[in-house]
Amino acid sequence: MEYTLVTLLYWAFAALGGLLVLTKILRYGSRPQKFPPDGPITTMKLGGQNLFLLNDPAVIRDLLEKRSNNYSCRPDLYARHFGDNLNIALRDNDEIWRRQRKMYHVRLNVRSADRYLPYQHFDSLQLLNDLVTNPEGWVQHVQRYTASISSTLLYGWRTPRTSTGYVKDLLEAMVLFPDVQAEAQKELDDVIGSGRLPTWDDRANLPYIRGVVEETLRWAPSPLSAAVPHSAKEDDVYNGMVIPKGSMVMINVWTLNHERFANARDFDPMRYNAESTLTENNAISQDSPKRLHFTFGAGRRVCPGFHVAERNLFIAISRILWGFSISRARGVDGEFTVINRDAVTPGMIVRPEDFECEIKPRDSIRETLVKEQWQAAEKDLDSEGNFTPEFIQASFT
Ligand code: HEM
């Protein structure tokens, strides 16, 4: 009994210590300059659990992609036992997960994602109209946009992951990097003009905007892969390093999204050549060193919703930049409010800290067009705010 208590206490302290170290590594905001990760793999112990943090694209390719048979499991996380173990993101790679994955693939593959575009275009109109009529409520408008799309696509199933944060991150980047905003708007003015809104079909002709979308995914703090670890099915040896069965293997997204790039905290859409952003699948390429970022995870557990996420982001970002100027807000004293671009919320799941900004229509032509388009689109909603059967039929046939 005494032994059990001591053992329990030992593991509790070891796990707590490990968690603190891990939190420190993953929270880039508090990561000292020379703190690990150094080298391609950082190893540590979380209680009795071995943890391997992957910091190098080539290692991700060698382990999560090439040896995906061994690294597509999920560790037996405590969270799994709260529900019925049917959450695909937490489930081990058993037969049920494989069937779930197939089902998600059917719902979320590139063709299905194209079929949801009418909803995304529709919801983005409401977003723009909300921004025209109530710019101060921008955080709620951005949240509503993604939540509404997710629930529509998935017939009531709401994914815990949304791109809400990323539209917010884009707005922050546009305040901090006004030259990027100006360049993006120049491209939109040249290619689209003020007479119509950009659509997903314009993507091929908007290389700078494509760069803005991928840069948003790279630049924003992205803790998701860290929150959803992979695990080793069997003992493995990699470059002489033993990775025991059951070890947690995590993608160190922050390091991967930053350490390969010069001036990594600058928001620079020109990092990517136009060809690499044209191919949508480059965001999840199995040839990991060619990846632009690791925000969607890797291997067989890679995010199956990325086509939908890419569309959500492209449509929202291109339309917001087409219609609005985003600038620093002024406080009551008339001075510009300060934004710390690297400030994040505390804890293991980091998000950027809240910030203030001013969002204004770029001119009255765009403002009028947004209002008109929303008035016309609103007819597709019934009295409860749901899509009419006619709209659903027309969009799906
Ligand atoms: C910008 C938005 C999104 C980001 C950054 C994101 C990121 C991720 C990441 C990092 C993972 C874990 C990958 C890994 O284990 O290596 C994941 C898994 C997953 N995502 Fe996403 N996601 C996004 C949007 C979506 C959307 C819109 C959907 C559905 C409509 C979705 C559905 C899923 C599912 C079902 C899984 C679990 C897959 C599995 O464990 O087999 N995600 N996502």
UniProtKB/TrEMBL annotation:
UniProt-listed Gene3D superfamilies: Cytochrome P450
Cofactor(s) listed: heme
Pfam families linked: p450
GO terms of molecular function: heme binding; iron ion binding; monooxygenase activity; oxidoreductase activity, acting on paired donors, with incorporation or reduction of molecular oxygen
Transmembrane segments: 6-26
SUPFAM superfamilies membership: Cytochrome P450
Residues annotated to bind heme: 303
Keywords: Heme, Iron, Membrane, Metal-binding, Monooxygenase, Oxidoreductase, Transmembrane, Transmembrane helix
Family: Belongs to the cytochrome P450 family.
Protein's name according to its UniProt entry: Cytochrome P450
Species for this entry: Cylindrodendrum hubeiense
